[in-house]
Amino acid sequence: MTPRSSWNADVSWAEFDPIAYVDHNYRDMQAEDAEILCIVRDHFADHFRRYPATPVSGIDVGAGANLYPALAMLPWCEEITLLEYSSANVRYLESQVAAYDANWDQFWDVLREHEAYRALGMDPRERFRRAVEVKGGSILDLARYEGRWSVGTMFFVAESMTTSWQEFRLGVERFLRALTPGAPFAAAFMEHSKGLYAGERFFPACDVGESEVHASLEKLADDFKVVRPASSACVRDGYAGMLLACGRRRQ
């Protein structure tokens, strides 16, 4: 399906089906997600080994129905904000805070292969319950929170909320500006996405590749790299692959 031109405000995000999305993407861990998770795990662990800081506040921008970015920040964060615009996704996230579903254990198992995660000192569900707050809100409204969080993630958001290249760039900028100078970040993107179905509803996407992702980051990011997971398996039709950017907010 070729979507019409759609800005973020044109889309009925309340109709997003988080259960269908989880069933299709995260009920069983895909090879691409496992590879991405290993890279993010090592990036955060290396950063906080070199620059220990407590307490740390984290944010996952556009969390949707995906918990593994928040799990990746868990060892260092006293608080983690899950920012989400869709009311349906907000309800899903709220249902996961007290005790998240068993399918997320396989993602934690990948994380705990690193000693920084094994050293958590408590059950990850208990730490998640204590640290996580779900907050309704848009990535485009983050300007008022500039410099608020000291670690951040944004997975499949900026390119998956609009067909507009301008809105994509603005979303990436708002995400980075919400972080403190020097804060580590990880951001994942669907490469050349044509949009996606969540249940019966089709949602738009902005067609971006490695050069567009790099260009969106270079103004506000330092020591960053954009990588493509080696796995060639696609979770769904309509995209070329995944891209992952890891780096630090520019000082």
TrEMBL record:
The keyword Nucleotide-binding does not apply. Signal peptide: none annotated. Keywords: Methyltransferase, S-adenosyl-L-methionine, Transferase. GO terms for biological process: methylation. PROSITE patterns: SAM_MT_NNMT_PNMT_TEMT. InterPro entries: NNMT_TEMT_trans, SAM-dependent_MTases_sf. Transmembrane segments: none annotated. It holds the Pfam family NNMT_PNMT_TEMT. GO terms for molecular function: methyltransferase activity. The keyword rRNA-binding does not apply. It comes from the Bacteria. This is SCO2525 family SAM-dependent methyltransferase.
